[in-house]
Design goal:
single chain; 3-stranded mixed beta sheet; 10 helices; about 325 residues; mainly alpha
């Protein structure tokens, strides 16, 4: 393939995740189906949280924010990857690459802090149930959500803009399926050691600070649950926290393996596989993890389907 015929002097070239073999075509189909399920599942979750009064609580407010972030995260990378795979054109413009890095970092960083705030919400709900309505007010919830978005935005702006200030040489071939900062920095003609060190410290902060908040929150929750005398109370507490813990383990397990493991211990193939997992499949799994084990969400979904069925029956009768 002649890369020069596909790209301008400022374009980047994405090697992608899949080739044209039958196996990779099958894997691409699975990835694209996962993307569609991500849009459907998370979009439905956002809609339910917005329209159903019974879900107008802090826990579901944060869940709606998480679903919205997951939708945008998938839309940041998957459509361009699919377009390049189906068209055979692997190029992405300089501006497009910058936008991918910015949105990916913004959403990834924002999700780190949002998961921490969700853990704090569960901590207050279980350890301070009587004070919960006065602590987790609408104002506080919106302030936490805005803080998550703002910190993610700052991370995206700083890392994305600085990365694009470096000069790039040659054909600008990125060994990835989207413009991820470490993969783009590998193409820089200048010395990036100082910036990579600073970026590593920032990533450690962006990951460890929320992770420590989550650990502290769940340590207090565990102590409170163990002190409960009611078996029913313990079961309810574990039930409300287990879904969030599953999401935290999936998200942090994959992200830490990319941004906190030294580059010498990783390969581009492993990086792409792990990135595909938290880009394609974790956003798909999140709404199922939360909804299938949650009576409130399933009840709201049943109520919505009942309204749709009633509306359809009335329409048929009128016709």
């Amino acid at each position: 393939m002649n890369l020069g015929n596909q790209t301008s002097k400022t374009d980047f070239f994405l090697l992608g995740l899949f080739n044209t073999s039958e196996l990779h075509c099958f894997l691409f189909s699975l990835a694209f189906i996962s993307f569609l399920l991500t849009l459907l599942g998370n979009g439905l979750m956002v809609f339910l949280v917005y329209v159903e009064v019974q879900l107008h609580t802090p826990m579901y407010f944060f869940l709606g924010q998480l679903s919205f972030m997951d939708m945008l995260l998938a839309c940041t990378t998957v459509p361009k990857m699919a377009m390049n795979f189906l068209s055979g054109r692997k190029s992405i413009s300089f501006v497009g690459c910058g936008f991918q890095m910015f949105f990916f970092l913004t959403l990834g960083g924002g999700e780190c802090f949002l998961l921490a705030f969700m853990a704090y919400d569960r901590y207050v709900a279980i350890t301070k149930p009587l004070r919960y309505p006065t602590i987790m007010t609408n104002h506080v919830c919106w302030l936490m959500a805005a803080t998550s978005w703002l910190l993610g935005l700052l991370d995206g702006l700083i890392q994305g803009l600085v990365t694009l200030t470096f000069p790039f040489c040659g054909l600008r071939v990125i060994d990835h399926f989207f413009c991820e900062v470490p993969a783009v920095l590998a193409l820089a003609c200048a010395d990036t050691t100082t910036f990579e060190t600073i970026m590593y410290v920032c990533c450690v902060g962006m990951l460890l600070i929320p992770f420590l908040i989550i650990l502290a929150s769940y340590a207090q929750i565990l102590v409170a649950v163990l002190q409960m005398t009611s078996a029913k109370g313990k079961k309810k507490a574990f039930s409300t926290c287990s879904s969030h813990l599953a999401v935290v383990i999936l998200f942090y397990g994959t992200v830490i393996s990319i941004y906190m493991v030294p580059h010498s211990y990783r390969s581009p193939g492993v990086d792409k596989t792990v990135a595909a997992f938290y880009t394609f499949f974790i956003p798909t799994l999140n709404p199922f993890i939360y909804s299938l084990r949650n009576k409130d969400v399933m009840g709201a979904l049943g109520k919505l389907l009942g309204k749709i069925r009633l509306c359809c029956n009335e329409t048929v009768q009128v016709v």
